[in-house]
Write a structure and sequence with these properties.
By secondary structure, this protein is an alpha/beta fold. It contains seven helices and twelve strands. It folds into two domains: 163 residues, Rossmann fold (3-Layer(aba) Sandwich); 66 residues, no CATH class.
Length: 238
C-alpha cells in the first residue's frame, strides 16, 4: 500500500453504526493519486458514510484502510490530525463558522498552517473574486444565501490546495452557470495534482464532465466508466 500511487486503499471494509446492520459491506477501493471520480448512488446508499471514512471522521467497523500510505489501524490521534490537514472537505451542510467573516472562514486553513497574512490576503481575495463573492468578503455567513454559503465552503476547502478533495453535493445550491464554474475549479485543482471525489445526484454534471463514477448500490461499490458500462463490480481501481 504505497503512498506514491494510492491516496486511499480499502480492503474488505465494512461500516455499521452501534449494533445496527452494515451500511457498507466488503468495500474494495484503490483511489489513485491524481484521479477524479464522481460518487453516486440513491439516497441512503452510503455515500456520506464512505466520504466520512475518506476524510477520517469515521473508522471502518472492519477491514483494512490506508490513507496516504498510513494504515488507520496503526495511527494515533496526532497522526490522524496530520493526515486530515492534507484533505479538503466540502460538507453538504456547509459547516461555516458564523462569528467569522466570509474572508476569515476561507482564510482559516491557511492560518492553521502558519502562512503569513500578506500571502493569505492575496490568495483568499483572488479566490473569492473567482467565485464571485468579492463583494461579500466581510459578510458573516448568516447573512448569505445558500448558494453563497456553498461557494464559501468550497473556497475554504480548496484554498490550501489539498492533496485530496472530497465534496458532498458541492453544486446542489447553485445555478447551472455557477455549478459549471465550480466544476472547472475542481478540474483545475485536479490538473495540479489534487485527487478529487465529488458526491452528486446531478446527471448534468456527470454527463458534462466525463469522469468515472464510484457507484454505491446494495451496500457495495462498483466503478462505472463515462460511457456508462460497469468496469468491475466491487473493486474501484482507477
Amino acid at each position: 500500500m504505497g503512498e506514491d500511487n494510492n491516496i486511499i486503499e480499502m480492503q474488505n471494509v465494512g461500516i455499521r453504526y452501534d449494533q445496527g446492520p452494515e451500511v457498507l459491506s466488503d468495500i474494495k477501493l484503490s483511489l489513485k493519486k491524481g484521479s477524479f471520480h464522481f460518487l453516486t448512488g440513491k439516497s441512503g446508499a452510503g455515500k456520506t458514510s464512505l466520504l466520512s471514512m475518506m476524510y477520517l471522521a469515521q473508522k471502518p467497523s472492519r477491514g483494512n484502510m490506508s490513507v496516504f500510505g498510513r494504515n488507520l489501524n496503526f495511527t494515533n490521534r496526532d497522526e490522524l490530525a496530520s493526515l486530515r490537514r492534507r484533505i479538503g472537505v466540502v460538507f453538504q451542510d456547509f459547516r461555516l463558522i458564523n462569528h467569522l467573516s466570509a474572508f476569515d472562514n476561507v482564510a482559516l486553513p491557511l492560518r492553521v498552517c502558519g502562512m503569513n497574512e500578506r500571502e493569505i490576503r492575496k490568495r483568499v481575495s483572488e479566490l473569492l473574486k473567482w467565485v464571485e463573492l468579492d463583494a461579500h468578503m466581510q459578510d458573516s455567513p448568516d447573512t448569505l444565501s445558500g448558494g453563497e454559503k456553498q461557494r464559501i465552503a468550497i473556497a475554504r476547502a480548496v484554498i490550501n490546495r489539498p492533496e485530496l478533495l472530497l465534496a458532498d453535493e458541492p453544486t446542489g445550491n447553485v445555478d447551472n452557470f455557477i455549478a459549471t464554474k465550480l466544476m472547472k475549479l475542481f478540474v483545475e485543482l485536479n490538473k495540479l495534482g489534487t485527487t478529487v471525489v465529488i458526491a452528486t445526484h446531478s446527471e448534468k454534471l456527470i454527463n458534462d464532465f466525463c469522469y468515472p463514477r464510484l457507484h454505491l448500490q446494495n451496500r457495495s461499490l462498483q466503478i462505472i466508466n463515462p460511457a456508462g458500462s460497469t468496469i468491475l463490480r466491487g473493486l474501484a481501481d482507477a
